[in-house]
Amino acid sequence: MDRRGFLKFAAGGTVGLVASPIIWNTLYDAVYWTQNWGWIPRVPKGESRYLPTVSKLCPSGTGFLVRTVSGTPVRTVGDRNNPVTHGAITALAAAEAELRVSPARIKTPLRRSADGAYVAVTWAEAERLLKEKMQAAGSSVAAVSGDPTSSINEVLSSMLNQKGSSDFYFMPGDEQPAALAWEAMGGQGRLGYDMEGSDCILAVGAPVLESWGVVAANRSLFNRTHPVAGEATQKLLYAGAVQNNTAAGADLWLPMKSGTDMALMLGLARLLIKAGKKNFAAGLGNFAAFAEAYTPEKVASITGVPAARLEEAAKMLVAAKRPLVIAGSALGSGGAAGPVMAAVALNMLLGSVNRQGGMVDMPFPVAVVDHAAAYRATIKKNLVDYTQAVAAGKAAAPAFLLVYAANPVYALPADSGVKETIAKAGFSVAVASFMSETCESCDLVLPAALGMEAFDDVQTPYGSGRVTYALARPVARPFENARSAGELFIALAQELGLELGVKDMPELLYKHAYALGAPFRAMLEEGKVHVAGFDAPVSPLFYNWEAIRKAASAPGADGDLQVAPVTVLAVGTPQTAIPPFATKVVTDYQLKGRYSVAQMNGATAAKLKVKAGDLVRLVAGNNVEITVVAAIFEGILPDTVSLVAGLGHTAFDEFSKGKGANVLALTSVCREPGTGLPVWGLAGVKAARA
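The structure corresponding to this sequence follows.
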C-alpha cells in the first residue's frame, strides 16, 4: 500500500468509527468507570454557601465571597455587595482557598533542636516555652508585625508596653514615608486619597492598578470610569519607567526614569504656578522660586519625559475640576518621603486638599486595648533604624523577638540588619501561616490560622480616602493544628498576668465596631462592611520648600542600568510567595525556567550586545550578582531593566523555591537627605552577557 492508499484507508476508518455507536458507548463506559474509582478525588457534596469576608493575605484587605461545600472552602470570588471593592478581586485573594491547603502551610508548632533541625512539638509545649521565654526576657522584648490593618497589633504592643518595651514595629511600607511627609507639610491626621471623587488622577511611581493602595477598589474604580463602549469619566495619568498594567491602562503615560519623581513633580509645579494654580499657604513664594529652575527642558533631561508630554499632563490637571496627585513606590517599601512631599505641594497648588477628590486628612485608628501603642506613633517608627542599630552593636539585641505575619529576612535588603538581629536575639519566634525564610531563621515557629479560619479585622488600609472597617470571620476550620494568632496572644497575655481589657478576639472586634459606630452584629453575621463619614480636620499646611529642596538633592543609584521593579500580586507577597493556584499566570516575560527575566528595550540590548533569550549577569553596587534571561520590550526606557519582584525564594514550597532572583538582593539601604529616612527603592547595576 502506497502513502496515498494508506491515507484513504485511515480516513475511511475514521469515518466509520465516528459513524458507529459502538465507540461512543465504549467511551461512555470508560469515562463512567474511570471516574468512579474510590481513590479519585471528588468535589465534596453537601450544602453550598457563599459567605462574605475579607482577605488577610491580600495587603489591601480585599473583600470576597468564600464558597464552601459542607464547610470546606473551595473557591473565592468577588463580592459585588462590598462597598469598597464592588466585586473586584485580586489574584492573591482569588487564590486564598487554594493557599489554605498549600504545601507551604505550617502544620504544627516547630522547635529548633540542638543540631539545628526542627522538631514537632505540641501546642501545650509551645505555649509553655513561649511563656517561659517572654517572662524571662523582662523588658528586653521586641515584636514586628506585617499586618498594619489588624487589631492584633494592639494586643502585641500592649504586652510589650506593660513589660517596659517600646520596640514594637510595623514592616516598612508606603505609609511610613507618607506619614513623615504629611507631617512635614503640616498634616495633623492620617493621609488619605479620595480617588473615587476625583476626575483626574496623576500617580507618580505608584502602580495603582497593580500593587499600590486598595488595589481591588482601584481596579473597580478604573473599570467603572473607563467603560469599554463609552467615554472615560475619569482621567488616569501614570509616571513610571515601565509600561506596566497601570501605564498601559492610563490615559497618559509619562515615561519617567526611576528615581526622578521629584524632578518631574517640581517641573509640574512650575507649570501649574504659571497657569495660575497657586493657592496660598506659608512658604509659597520660596517654593515657587525653587521650582522655577525646573523648566520642561531641564525636567526632560533629568527624567526622560518629553517636554511636550509634561506640558500635556499639566494642562490635564489644570482643566480638571477635582484633580489628585499620588506618589508611591514600585516595591511598596523602601520609598522616600520627598516625592510624597512634592505630591502634597502639587495638591496644595491645585486646591485639592481636604475636599472631594483630593488628598484628605483622615483620623488615625483608635486603640481599644488597654496600654496599646497609638497607631500614629507606631507608623512613624522605623524597623530598619532598629535592626541596623542592633546589627552594629549600637542597641542591645532583644532577649525575646516575635515576628508576626511578616517575612523581613526576604523582604528587606541584606544590609538592613534583620538577619543579624534575629541571630543575636536570645530567643526568636515566628507566628505565620507559611514556612518562610524568616520562619526558617527562628527558634520557634507557630502555625497561624488564615483570615477565613479565625476572627480578625481590616481597619482602613493605606491608600483609602474613607474610614472603613471590615471583619474577617472564620468560615472554615483551621488547617491542621493552626491557631488564631489573636487568641494565642490574648491567652499569652493572660498567662503573664497582663491587663488588656479584652478577653478574646470577638470582644476586641466588638469594641472597635462600637467605637466607630459600626453595626457589629450585621458585620459578624452577614459580613457587612462599615464605611464611615468623617469631618476632615483643618490642618495648617504649608509649603515646606526647605525639606523638599533637601530631599530633591538625593543622588541617583550608581550603575550603568537602573533597575525598575514591577510588583504583581499574582506572584504573591513575601508572606505567601507564589500561590500554587497562580503559577499558570506567571509568564515567560517574568520567569523563564529558573531565571528571572530582565526586560529591556532594543537600544539597551544593542548596547549590551545581547538578544532575547541570552543570559545576562547583573552586578549591583553591593557586589550581589544575579543571572537573568534577557527579553526585549519597547515599553521600557533606555538604560533600564525591569524585573518582577516576589521571586527568588529559598523557602516555602516547590512552586517558589529556586524560582528566579529576589530583586531586593540588588538594593542597599541609604539615607534620604533631610529626613534621614532609610530608603532602598532604587538600585543600579552593571550588566554583561553571561
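The radius of gyration is 27 Å.
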